[in-house]
Write a structure and sequence with these properties.
By secondary structure, this protein is α/β, with parallel strands linked by helices. 30% of the residues lie in helices and 26% in strands. The longest helix has 17 residues, at 55-71.
Length: 544
């Protein structure tokens, strides 16, 4: 059954219960933040506010948007892109798209105008739904992207080049559209950058979305009494797929637009949250704040908090040991997944296996896993090979990219590009990556993008970007730069030039040195990783 049926069910059974809460904490200072400076989660510049909707209102909003799309000429199989910050409208809009039989296409809110235009073109999106934070970026490409494409604005002060979501949706029927949707129908396109830095469009079915909900509920045992605190951005498969467990059980979720320790603990306390999904940096920040005495547990009501789970990057066992010293009664789980495997859950630790922290666990509900050599043959236990996974959440393909699809999908198995080994108890530990990717604070960075940008700076002769270990972020991007003869260049010069990049893409460390290349001209990154102490970085993080 399609996942939209879960929303209809909750509406019938728990219609007057609260489904979603949105909290915007008060900013400590009123500074203007441009989109290039965005953190992974950004509070609105507005004062503190709290909004909520019931399951009845959630479903009504989804239906009204679905009927708006249908009346605008959208048909089953069309694509509708979402470019919104986390907000109370996000999920009803997503489900409204699904109810039409169209495909939802979430976009990263830190995309530049060029990246937005590229992803709209690649996905063949027929509609773009965007919020006030994106007016400038969308306006700069409006003439290009509005050709044969509807632009719908969500918020106050609709610009002249877009249609007003609130005005139009209010006049649409609140009844559910009668569109036949089946598990095998295409449901969503998510974006994941490849090793070349260009986004790939990942196609998933309704069946994959439904399996994500089932797997999440099986792994963490959500009931209607659980309250899920969701902080990461909803365009991530991870955030949304973890919330799907709450959707399946009819439980409440809280969308929090803030990541400071006091803000997180305050939300857990006041909203009576029982399940919290954190990224490693946020968990580290909470522990550091507790160690310093900046926050005190006795100031909050936390006895109902039963589960902390974490993902998106390797989790140091030392951090989990520290966490247990403050929260000895918490269940703990870590999840491994890719956008290509519909987010988290194809491998997970399991709440009963905390002594195995440092591994990513075993196959998740409904999944198979293997570790194989370069020929695809399983390697003996204890030896390193590539992790491959198979299950109902594997993508259909990279949309409009058959070559890239053939590279990673073989006989139903998804080749993850992560090197791993299995211990004597069958638990899997990540060792290294085949793909040239840096995971910093849960965000994927693709070195080629940063390298290409730095090469445009005149004093730069050559550059290589590698990951270096970092206690809080897991790893950081470091740029090894060779300066042109006759030019001078300082770290301050590079940092100033890099302000043109979104903050999360900027190198944290600058190293002035020769960039080694092999006889074919390829950068010898293994040599650089060994030289600067980052070889088998993933293994080191998992053992920390």
């Amino acid at each position: 059954m399609p996942i939209t049926e879960l929303l209809e069910k909750n509406c019938r059974l728990y219609g007057d219960d609260i489904s979603l809460v949105e909290i915007n904490p008060e900013l400590p200072e009123t500074r203007r933040v441009t989109w290039r400076e965005y953190n992974l989660i950004e509070p609105s510049p507005a004062p503190y506010y709290r909004r909520e909707i019931t399951w009845n209102v959630f479903n009504e909003k989804a239906n009204r948007f679905a009927n708006l799309l249908l009346s605008s000429g959208i048909h089953k199989g069309d694509k509708v892109a979402i470019l919104l910050m986390n907000c109370l409208e996000w999920l009803p809009i997503y489900f409204g798209i699904l109810k039409t039989g169209a495909l939802a296409v979430p976009l990263n809110f830190r995309y530049s105008s060029d990246e937005i235009a590229y992803c709209l073109s690649l996905s063949e999106a027929d509609v773009l739904v965007f919020g006030p934070e994106f007016i400038g970026r969308v306006e700069s490409i409006a003439d290009e992207i509005s050709r044969n494409r509807l632009l719908i604005f969500v918020g106050e002060g609709c610009p002249s080049f877009a249609e007003d979501y609130r005005a139009h949706a209010a006049n649409c029927s609140s009844s559910s559209p009668k569109i036949d949707i089946r598990d095998e129908d295409e449901a969503a396109i998510y974006f994941s950058s490849g090793t070349t830095g260009f986004p790939k469009a990942i196609l998933h079915t309704h069946g994959a979305l439904m399996h994500a909900a089932l797997a999440e509920q099986k792994h963490h045992g959500q009931t209607r009494d659980d309250v899920f605190l969701c902080i990461p951005p909803l365009y991530h498969t991870g955030a949304k797929m973890h919330w799907f467990g709450s959707l399946l059980s009819g439980g409440r979720a809280v969308l929090l637009k803030g990541t400071s320790p006091s803000v997180i603990l305050d939300a857990v306390s006041k909203e009576r949250c029982t399940i919290v999904w954190l990224l490693v940096p946020w968990a580290q920040d909470i522990l550091d704040a507790l160690d310093r005495g900046d926050v005190k547990l006795e100031d909050y009501q936390l006895s109902q908090w039963r589960l902390m789970h974490i993902g998106a990057q390797p989790v140091p066992p030392s951090m989990i040991k520290r966490w247990r010293s403050y929260f000895p009664h918490h269940q703990y789980d870590t999840n491994y997944g890719l956008s290509e495997s519909i987010g988290p859950g194809c491998v997970h630790l399991g709440v009963d296996n905390i002594e195995k922290a440092g591994t990513i666990g075993k196959a998740g509900y409904g999944w198979e896993v293997k570790i194989v050599d370069s020929s695809g043959a399983p390697v003996p236990k204890g030896q390193v090979g590539e992790l491959i996974v198979k299950g109902p959440g594997v993508m259909v393909c990279y949309y409009r990219d058959p070559k890239a699809t053939a590279d990673v999908l073989k006989d139903g198995w998804l080749y993850t590009g992560d090197m791993a080994q299995e211990d004597e108890d069958g638990f899997i530990m990540l060792v290294d990556r085949k793909k040239d990717v840096i995971i910093s604070g849960g965000e994927n960075l693709y070195p080629v993008q940063i390298e290409d940008f730095l090469r445009t700076y005149e004093p730069v002769y050559d550059v290589a970007v590698i990951g270096l270990p970092d206690k809080r972020l897991g790893e950081i991007a470091a740029a090894v730069i060779s300066v042109k003869q006759g030019f001078s260049c300082t770290e301050e010069d590079i940092n100033q030039f890099c302000k043109k990049l979104p903050r999360y893409k900027r190198p944290h460390k600058i190293i002035f040195a020769d960039v080694p290349r092999n006889p074919t001209g390829k950068i010898e990154k293994p040599k650089l990783r060994t030289l600067y102490g980052s070889s088998r970085l993933v293994e080191a993080q998992n053992r920390a």
